Amino acid sequence: MSVRSFIGRVAPALVCVLLLSACAGYSGYGLKPGVATVSDVVATMGVPAMRWLDADGSEQLAYPRGPSGPQTFMVFMAPDGRLQRIEQVLDMEHFARIQPGKSDRESVLRLLGPPVPQWTAYFKARDELVWEWQFCDSWNQLARFDVLFDASSGIVRTSYQRQVLMGFDGVAPFCGR
Q1: What is the dihedral of CA 83, 85, 88, 92, to 10 degrees?
Q2: Is 98 in a helix, a strand, or coil?
Q3: 108: nearest Cα among 141, 77, 83, 74
């Protein structure tokens, strides 16, 4: 067997193995609730973008995977330092928890994680700060979710939009779920 034909046979399998191993760290897949510790989570998923320590000793870690990846994973650790659960939070269920007049910046950060910095904007004329996240919508297409904070009234509102992205064949790209 020539080197070229050997590489041609082995390379696709190697690429698949590398991609699958990368996905495990990306989402924390394989970490066992009640078993994995904070150090296991950090070793698998990396350093979190944000961390919150609660009064009872429990901890929440945020793993945003944007702007290219349309997910943010929230890791919830029990007071004993063991993994409780991992949630993918960029979905309509979590977005619906944002309530006008009741949600503030801190509660939105704890719910959705940090927004994409490049898409954060402040509109001086309206005295409004806008945070934005990319996610996979119910139709499995890339979309964006915005949270708008009105500094003068304190009102929080949200908006949802599908991107006008077309692939080479004129069809909008799917998220791959």
Answers
A1: -150
A2: coil
A3: 74
What burial class does residue 55 get, using C-beta atoms within 10 Å of its C-beta: 0-12 exposed, 13-18 middle, 19+ buried?
exposed
pLDDT of 21 over the 50 cut: no
User: 143, 125 in Cβ contact below 8 A?
Assistant: no
Strands (E), 2-71: 50-53, 59-64
Rounded distance, CA 7 to CA 55, Å? 55
Average pLDDT of the chain is 83
pTM: 0.79
Cα 35 to Cα 26, 85, 97, 124, distances in angstroms: 19, 11, 30, 48
Above 50 in pLDDT, residue 155?
A: yes
SS3 content of the chain, % helix, strand, coil (to 5): 25, 30, 40
Residue 17 pLDDT: 37
